[in-house]
Amino acid sequence: MEIDINLSQFHDIFFEESFEGIEIMESELLNLSPGTADKEIINTIFRAAHSIKGSAGTFGFSEISDFTHKMETVLDKMRSDELEITQQLISVLLSAVDSLNNMLISHREAKPYDPTLVENVSAQLERLTPHARTDSSPSREESCQGDNQAGSTNQGPEQRWRIGFFPHEKLFYSGNDPLRLIRELQTLGEFAIKAEVDNLPDFDDLDVHNCYLGWRIQIQGQITREQIEEVFAWVEGDCRLEITREIQRRSSEDRRKGPEQSGRRKIDTENRSIRVSTDKIDNLLNLVGELVITQSILNRVCNDLGMDSSDKFLECLEQLERNTRDLQEQTMSIRMLPVDNAFQRIPRIVHDLSIAQGKQVTLEFSGETTELDKTVLEKIGDPLVHLVRNALDHGIETPDIRASKGKPEQGTIKINASHEGGYVILRISDDGNGINSDKLLATANEKNLIAEGEELSETQIQNLIFLPGLSTSKEINDISGRGVGMDVVKRNISDLGGTVDVWSEQGVGSTFTIRLPLTLAILDGQIVRVGNQIFIMPLHSIKETMIFDDRAANTVAGKVELYKYRDEYISLIRLTELFNIEPETNTDHPELLVVFDIGDKHVGILVDDVIGQQQVVIKSLENNYKSVPGLTGATVLGDGSVALILDVLGLAAQHKETSSRVNTA
Amino acid sequence: MPTRNKTATTKKAPAARKKKAVKKKRSPAKSTANNSRVKSAASKKPLTHTLTLDSVAVINNAKALYEEFGKVINTDVNIDASSVEMIDTAILQLLYAFVIKVTSSNHKINWINPSDEFISRATLLGLSRNMGIA
Fold this sequence. Notes:
The complex is a heterodimer. By secondary structure, chain A is of the alpha+beta class. Helix content of chain A is 41%, strand content 23%. Chain A has 21 helices and 23 strands. In chain A, the strands form five sheets. A six-stranded mixed beta sheet of chain A has the order 15-19-20-18-17-16. The longest helix of chain B is centred in the N-terminal third of the chain and has 25 residues, at 2-26. In chain B, the strands form two sheets. Chain B has a four-stranded mixed beta sheet. In chain B, strands 3-5 form a two-stranded parallel sheet. Helices cover 44% and strands 16% of the residues of chain B. The interface between A and B is medium-sized, with 30 and 37 residues.
């Protein structure tokens, strides 16, 4: 009879943790400087590789395990100073990380990978360590022996540790085997173990799928607490772990000074963190959203029933409202991750491109701990990478050109994240050549991207860079110059409800500023009425609301309406026409024009009434109905009615498209 | 505290164990003949059975092994671990509980040529001495 412990159910966790290991290896390799064997960095890379190797072996991904073993061998030689740290060595290891990443992706997606690339890197690794054993597969013990030697090269002082390892009963269900952990621990130093069998039931009552054993272990060597914790990282949350450094015998004088500081420290592995699927979080968010809606319905019902007189009831209602809001904020915060996650690809790109182009670049990050919604974070990665590539390709000059301009030979790219209001601002700046506005304008004119005779401000000219099909690069290469990037960058950011602007000064540098909403799940909205339909407008992009003056509206070619707003003509959008809404016949109050900021332009939307402001929970139309142009979603209001949320950027784009067609005609 | 409760429960265990062991001693070991892995080594009392562990003994086989072991707890048992190449904690824990069960009912366990791998893994978990392997 076989039990249902299917290791494949843990593959997701394995892949997730292995990709994290890949990121660590890559970022730490980029921190290595040729000629300097930073033991801490090398050990961190080694541990990440070792963890992937061990897990891959457990799950039967032998080629990953074998390949990582070869990386380990090289890393081991590096930390024992048998291999000099050179740029070439770092590049080989970075290629190995890439190959490992490809292997992991191919296993995760059950697709084949190109073995020649892996073989090529594998051969390079073997050439670096010609006399090393690289055959890891037949016995896991053998590789552990190797690790033992490697582990002893740790530079720390000799320490003695007492470890209490008490697995939870259901540990086996997570695919973990204490034997593997204890064997790995044993490789760290001199080792003694005692099994704790008190919890083991009588044979008749034994559930063979439960783990009843515990262990008390003593280990001595140049071992740090982090190394021990690393061994047990896989069972975090599945065990009680006690790690105690044994107090060294001290002189009587020392004893008079009092007890030693480090003493006993129990690691409460259960309270640190857990991995939760994003689906579960999203379901929780949806439920909290429903709660918020019910809360506002309750408020409305109480008002309608005239229950204002009951102070106690109102007090309870306010308390419920506060609690609901707190619950919502806390739940939202679960999805928030440091923006650092989106920066992780950038150092490698800068490293590779600067070598390829013979440029010297310093990359500086700040505000990496600023938090952003996971979805926004995932989608901002590509635009960020593109902007950094552009900064390196078009902005930063080669060292000789920089020297001739009196600039330091090494250019700088700075990436900063910060909170401003309800937004996260990302700034990507470089001290390169800046944008040549004359050239940009000439290219735009040449490609008929701007109307003849149209006068543009310096900012407007610089923002032409976001137009589709515009590139001032002389050569088309694999980095940039095809003119298909910046418009996509802008579109991607717009899709996230954000904006991107550019500032540049020729010879000094450029700064791209991205403004992103903290989350895509809730919105500060303005409730408006058009006919009998209620709409929600994103409050953050409303510039002002004014009484509509019929005389300021003009129709171009009988199709597109423009409105004279201060000194400019702005697009005028009538929702009654767009969504086929019966216009209001009662005209005893004036129509209102809500003016929106769209980048450096404005657009006006005509409404019958402004009802109020409210934070709304965004419900996807795509998931519940289908995608509708001009709408980003829907929400349920306090009276239980459904209101549609306007996609102002989309509406503006639609209007612009119609306007272009009219102009062309 | 949960840990204390568990300790209290297990303190009662030896008494319960003895009681069950005595009770089971009276029942004859009938089913051993049908299992190819369990061989009767003698026709007269006391009975000795031989259990042979496969080269790979891991948690997936634990339930089957438990049932097999359960049939011979009231006899002397030879355990042939000579071909074990891979064994995990779940099976070593099962063997440990089995050894305690058999020996506490005054029967004997005899290890037949335990492989190096078997000994090293049992030793690594701190179980070999109490199991009578080392």
